[in-house]
Amino acid sequence: MNIMNKLELLTQANRTLTETVTNEFAKLDLDALNYKPSAESWSILECLEHLNRYSRYYNPALAKAIAQNSNGNFLESINYSWLGKKSLDMVRPQNAKKHKTVKHMNPNNSKLGRGAIDEFLMHQEKLQQLLQNAKGTNLNKKAVPVEFFKLLKLRIGETLEFVVTHQERHIQQALRVKQQQAQQMAA
Fold first, then answer.
1. InterPro entries, per this entry (predicted)?
2. 3-class DSSP state for residue 94?
């Protein structure tokens, strides 16, 4: 797929995620936002906090990588490394297999309030800007250290796709939590 088309798809997905959080979660009360279907599952706010923890790392790492590689060396398509393909396959929303997250990224049993929503939306604005800035960047440059093992690096393009795809996965999870709560209330 052409890089400009890929960036546009990621930009649109980012907008959709922002709209979903604003429309589906922002108006809920704290009890609904903290509802957990089971002790080991995450609440809506825990899903958002998990994404916030990733954004706190990846947004600055991407900003640095994009700034250092915006030399106009623009390529027509994104090439994926083995690590990039594996990472994307793991977080795709269609992949129903559950994966354990690294301990410091697991928000289970966190005390969370509306600030988690505000922070998520702030990170989405930053990501939107990064996606725009990426248009003049060599997206095939291996320049983004993997959060849990910084010796490994992902390409800029695959990292942008990983961040958006990972967010889609957990926003869908949060929507399922909302639906489960509605079903429990109706029963």
1. DinB-like, DinB/YfiT-like
2. coil
Burial bucket for residue 31 (CB in 10 Å: 0-12, 13-18, 19+): exposed
pLDDT digits (tens, 9 = 90+) for 42-81: 999 999 999 999 999 999 999 999 999 887 666 677 888 9
Task: Provide the sign of the torsion angle of the four alpha carbons 184, 111, 105, 122, taken in this order.
Answer: positive
Q: Are 86 and 154 in contact (CB under 8 A)?
A: no
Pick the CATH number of 3-186 from 3.40.430.10, 1.10.3720.10, 1.20.120.450, 1.10.340.30: 1.20.120.450
**What are the structural domain ranges in the chain?**
3-186
In single-letter form, the type of residue at position 164 comes to V
To 5 degrees, how large is the angle CA 54–CA 56–CA 58? 60
